[in-house]
Write a structure and sequence with these properties.
The protein is globular, with a radius of gyration of 20 Å. Strands 2-3-4-10-5-6-7 form a 7-stranded mixed beta sheet, with helices on both faces. By secondary structure, it is an alpha+beta fold. It contains 11 helices and 11 strands. The protein folds into 3 domains: 84 residues, Malate/L-lactate/L-sulpholactate dehydrogenase, four-helix barrel (Hypothetical Oxidoreductase Yiak, Chain: A, domain 1); 153 residues, Malate/L-lactate/L-sulpholactate dehydrogenase, NADPH binding domain (Ribosomal Protein S8, Chain: A, domain 1, 2-Layer Sandwich); 30 residues, no CATH class.
Length: 329
């Protein structure tokens, strides 16, 4: 099914409103989901919305808005009250940006949330205001530490963002071999997983998404990725999450935002970031390889292309399910 970008965004917003989210919260969520689609991360776009609806049907819709529970000039603690992470992290990022612009640096944590989406979405918000950002969020322990088969930390994305004179430089990775949303989408599509990235409940390697969801995923990058996964888990704990968040609940999110002019003029720093990016892009690729890119280059280019074409491809069964839900408004 092919949708115009605006149609896809309206569908996502209407689905969330049908689930009794406010129009303001529904719009934040929809914008995030469609940005995933436009940047080639379809598993985190409209298919993810199906998972969101299923979770809300199972647990109910939150009855409280996101709340600032504690605040200082350079920090804040945001309580999600089980609201979706796209909203909680958006609020945390907005607060961090305002404080960092005024003071120079800020740290904001959010807890009691789930599914925080792309960290790069929030890093791009900060970069648009000339800020460097460091972001992390933990999750349900779906991932086994290196050398183990039992899940002990989440897929645990981490992200670093830098403003430049053009597109920002943003590096956003999960610390697991596969993201939870990818496994969920593979299950819906009846596809198998790649070899070597998951265990079943008995600790045996599996390519079956159902078995993997009942077992664990492997960490990205062996012991190095496992170490980063531990770091992110503990940063989420700093935000207020339990050390082992329950299934799709009580995640922790942390953002640190800072002004470059704490150490050098912002314009000079932006220019140096761009200078470095061009140096990297000018590196000779391996024989037969593609041109070298900086992190976020692919995402930004693909988004511009999709906006120009004004078309997003959505699996028919996903579209049909979402249209049926949205019709309940």
């Amino acid at each position: 099914m092919r949708l115009k970008v605006g149609e896809a965004r309206s569908l996502a917003r209407n689905v969330m409103m049908a689930m009794d989210y406010s129009e303001a919260y529904a719009s934040i969520i929809a914008d995030h989901l469609i940005d995933c689609e436009m940047r080639g991360l379809g598993y985190g776009g409209l298919p993810r919305l199906v998972s969101i609806v299923e979770r809300l049907e199972r647990t109910g819709v939150p009855d409280k808005p996101v709340e600032v529970a504690h605040e200082t000039p350079v920090s804040a603690k945001v309580v999600g009250h089980d609201n979706l992470g796209y909203v909680v992290a958006h609020e945390a990022t907005t607060i961090a940006i305002a404080k960092a612009r005024e003071i120079g640096i800020a740290i904001v944590g959010g807890d009691d949330t789930w599914y925080t989406g792309m960290r790069s979405y929030f890093a791009e918000m900060a970069a648009a205001e000339g800020l460097i950002s460091m972001i992390a969020s933990n999750a349900t322990p779906w991932v086994a530490p290196h050398g183990a088969v039992d899940g002990r930390f989440g897929t645990n994305p981490m992200c670093f963002g830098f403003p430049s004179t053009e597109d920002p430089i943003i590096w956003d990775i999960g610390t697991s071999s596969i993201m939870h949303a990818e496994v969920m989408l593979a299950r819906r599509l009846g596809e198998t997983l790649p070899e070597g990235i998951a265990f079943d409940a008995g600790g045996k390697p599996t390519t079956d998404p159902d078995a993997a969801l009942g077992g664990s995923f492997t960490p990205w990058g062996g012991h190095k990725g496992s170490g980063l996964g531990h770091v992110v888990q503990l940063l989420g704990v700093l935000a207020g999450s339990p050390t082992q968040p329950p299934d799709l609940a009580e995640f922790g999110f942390v953002i640190v935002a800072m002004k470059p002019d704490l150490l050098m003029p912002e314009a000079e720093y932006r220019a140096k970031v761009s200078e470095y990016a061009e140096a990297v892009r000018s590196a000779r690729p391996v024989e037969g390889g593609l041109a070298v890119r900086m992190p976020f280059d692919r995402s930004a280019a693909l988004r511009r292309q999709i906006l120009s074409e004004d078309a997003i491809e959505v699996a028919d069964f996903v579209h049909q399910r979402l249209v049926k839900i949205a019709a309940a408004i």
